[in-house]
Design brief:
The structure holds 3 protein chains of 3 kinds. Chain A has 5 helices and 11 strands, in the order E-E-E-E-E-H-E-E-H-E-H-E-H-E-H-E. By secondary structure, chain A is of the alpha/beta class. Chain A folds into 2 domains: about 5-100, Translation factors (Elongation Factor Tu (Ef-tu), domain 3, Beta Barrel); about 110-240, Rossmann fold. In chain A, the strands form 2 sheets. Chain A has a 6-stranded antiparallel sheet with strand order 4-3-6-1-2-5. Chain A has a 5-stranded parallel sheet with strand order 9-8-7-10-11, with helices on both faces. Chain B is mainly beta. Chain B has a domain at about 70-190: Sulfite Oxidase, Chain A, domain 2 (Alpha-Beta Complex), CATH 3.90.420. In chain B, strand 4 (about 70-75) and strand 5 form a beta hairpin. In chain C, a hairpin with a 5-residue loop joins strand 2 and strand 3 (about 35). Chain C has one domain. The mean pLDDT of chain C is about 90. Chain C is built from 1 helix and 8 strands; from the N terminus they run βαβββββββ. Chain C is globular. Chain C has one helix at about 10-15, and strands at about 5, 25-30, 35, 40-45, 50-55, 60-65, 70-75, 80. Classes of the chains: A alpha/beta, B mainly beta, C mainly beta. Chains in contact: A-B, A-C, B-C. The structure holds flavin-adenine dinucleotide (FAD) and zinc ion (ZN). Flavin-adenine dinucleotide sits at the interface of chains A and B.
Chain lengths: ~250, ~200, ~90
């Protein structure tokens, strides 16, 4: 039988936040991937029971390595194992990277508006990294990128230092929305994203941006609806719902 | 078997003799969502039994609630491997509903609001083995779990216990329902692990 | 809220059938005629199988059941699928 399952080796682990961990995998035979794709990970218990979950690729590397960032969900079946149970040298079954729809194409010169809720920042980070590493001759390399990142608190944000550094260039702007706890001294109190804050933070309708929205299903659904109501064409909005992870904007 | 992850056990608990093979025990009541949840107001709800001659027996919500009600405690087994023991339900026995029904058929197809179907032999619905249940744990059955009312055939895998049930059609020959036409077993006995064809 | 994902997340299971990424193909709904990339359909993954529903009318476009030994694919809700060669 032809199946797409291959064995990856865990070659690095690093704590991303208190509740999330980045795993670096080597997948023999892989020659890069498109920014925004995901893999399916299959775990098999000693009694043969299996569980499959999808994880976006966070990295934008050309070779046979890729990174995933997994957020631990309370009572989750797979994520606690990936966050605590896996160590360097372990093997994992992986299918992909797959998905040709929720991807950024360096040949597209459009400005890009990324909107992340929590761990939904993962595939958007791959796009930001691919953009930063793009061949300067490709039409997308000089496209404007904006990230709107809704996150619980400053210490729950992924990729902080790297995003700060990339946001120093004039090609990337990052706006944070803190839903539960704002940084000390912040003029804006913590609170959920609303339609007004959204319309201020994102690229204007006149720029005709390409949108990529990713996060818990309720977050993605709400934000996409607000954008359509604000006059952005639905066919410019691509979404990646992660499922019911309990959080809304 | 693929690569085994030594510390990974999934949501399974220890095997239990009360459980059919390959099942694990759960305390929660997982919702398997195959589509948008139909919301049916009691005024709109009806339940029908349609015989091979086209005769239709019909109950409105009030008529259905006026029938003799049974309180039952049953173990349920989902083909996706969870089992839940000692669940309590209130509903109308299919024996009660079939009292006035004349038919020579051996098979039935359950039809649900939302379009779902599943086939069950008539023998498995009669003899105190099946109910149309409208309360779970002393509360009105929630829409996510099949409310206003669902079929309850606990001795078969739980996909046979059609949520949002609206009627039974009597059939001369067995026909596959929604999942049965796509790989699932026609009968579905959990003790014989009749999961797939 | 009903918990569905994007059709895009079905790319892995569908890759067992199709050599190309079929989630980027445009499919026409048999029931309402809406035609769009399968990646934009509503994916219900945690049922007895994987279901893709039309975002226009919520009827079923595609069903996939993995029994371990076999994988069954039912495409009867799609009246037409269009692929683009790169
Ligand atoms: C395309 C795609 C890409 C994704 N990328 C990422 C990513 O990059 N990073 C990331 O962290 N996640 C990602 N996800 C989400 C990921 O696939 C998992 O859904 C997530 O990790 C949760 O899996 P789990 O097994 O830990 O939780 P599950 O076991 O699936 O449970 C999910 C939640 O439901 C509750 N629950 C469900 N069933 C039960 C039960 N029987 N008993 C008790 N509680 C229950 C749990 O409390 C938990 O909070 C992605 C999803 C998709 C579709
Ligand atoms: Zn349709």
């Amino acid at each position: 039988m032809r199946t797409g399952w291959r064995v990856a080796e865990v070659i690095g682990v690093s704590q991303e936040t208190r509740t999330a961990r980045t795993l670096r995998l080597r997948l023999p035979g892989l020659t890069g991937h498109r920014a925004g794709q995901h893999v399916d990970v299959r775990l098999t218990a000693p009694d043969g029971y299996t569980a499959v979950r999808s994880y976006s690729v966070a990295s934008a590397l050309p070779g046979d390595e890729l990174e995933l960032t997994v957020e631990e969900l309370d009572e989750g079946e797979v994520s606690p194992y990936l966050v605590h149970g896996v160590s360097v040298g372990d093997q994992l079954e992986v299918r992909g990277p797959v998905g040709g729809w929720f991807v950024w194409d360096p040949a597209d010169p459009s400005p890009v508006q990324l909107i992340a809720g929590g761990s939904g920042v993962v595939p958007l980070m791959a796009m930001i990294r691919a953009h930063a590493a793009a061949d300067p001759a490709s039409p997308g390399a000089t496209a404007e990128f904006r990230l709107l990142y809704s996150v619980r608190s400053p210490d729950a944000a992924y990729y902080g230092a790297e995003l700060d550094e990339l946001a120093g260039s004039d090609l990337l702007t990052v706006t944070y929305v803190y839903t539960r706890e704002a940084p000390a001294g912040s003029p804006v109190p913590p609170g959920r994203l609303d339609a007004r804050a959204l319309s201020i933070a994102v690229l204007p309708v006149s720029a005709n941006p390409a949108f990529f929205i990713c996060g818990a299903t309720a977050f993605v659904e709400t934000v996409a609806d607000w954008l359509v109501q604000a006059g952005y064409p639905a066919d410019r909005i691509k979404t990646e719902r992660y499922g019911g992870m309990g959080s809304t904007p | 078997m693929g690569i085994v992850s030594p510390g990974f056990f999934g949501r399974r608990r220890q095997g239990d003799p009360a459980l059919p093979p390959g099942q694990y025990l759960t305390e929660s009541f997982p919702v398997l969502s195959a589509g948008p949840t139909p919301r049916i107001a009691p005024e709109e709800w009806e339940f029908t039994i349609t015989t091979e001659t086209g005769q239709v027996h019909r109950w409105s919500w009030d008529e259905f609630l006026a029938l003799k009600q049974d309180d039952v405690t049953q173990d349920i087994h989902c083909v996706t491997s969870w089992s839940k023991l000692g669940t309590s339900w209130r509903g109308v026995s299919l024996d009660t509903l079939f009292e006035s029904v004349e038919s020579d058929c051996e098979f039935t197809m359950a039809h649900s609001y939302g379009g779902y179907t599943t086939n069950v032999p008539l023998d498995d619905l009669l003899g105190g083995k099946a109910w149309i249940a409208h309360e779970f744990d002393g509360e009105a059955l929630e829409p996510a779990h099949g409310g206003p009312a669902r079929l309850l055939v606990p001795h078969l895998y739980f996909w046979k216990s059609a949520k949002w049930v609206r009627g039974l059609e009597l059939l001369r020959q067995d026909e596959p329902g929604f999942w049965e036409s796509n790989g699932y077993h026609m009968y579905g006995d959990p003790w014989r692990e009749e999961r797939y064809w | 809220m009903t918990d569905y994902l994007d059709g895009n997340a079905a790319a892995g299971p569908l890759s067992e059938f199709f050599a190309i990424d079929v989630t980027t193909a445009r499919g026409r709904c048999l029931h309402c005629g809406r035609t769009d990339a399968l990646a934009t359909a509503q994916l219900y993954p945690n049922s007895h199988g994987l279901l893709l529903r039309c975002p226009g009318c919520t009827e079923i476009l595609l069903r996939l059941v993995d029994t371990g030994d076999t994988v069954c694919l039912d495409l009867h809700g799609l009246s037409f699928v269009e692929l683009h060669r790169d």
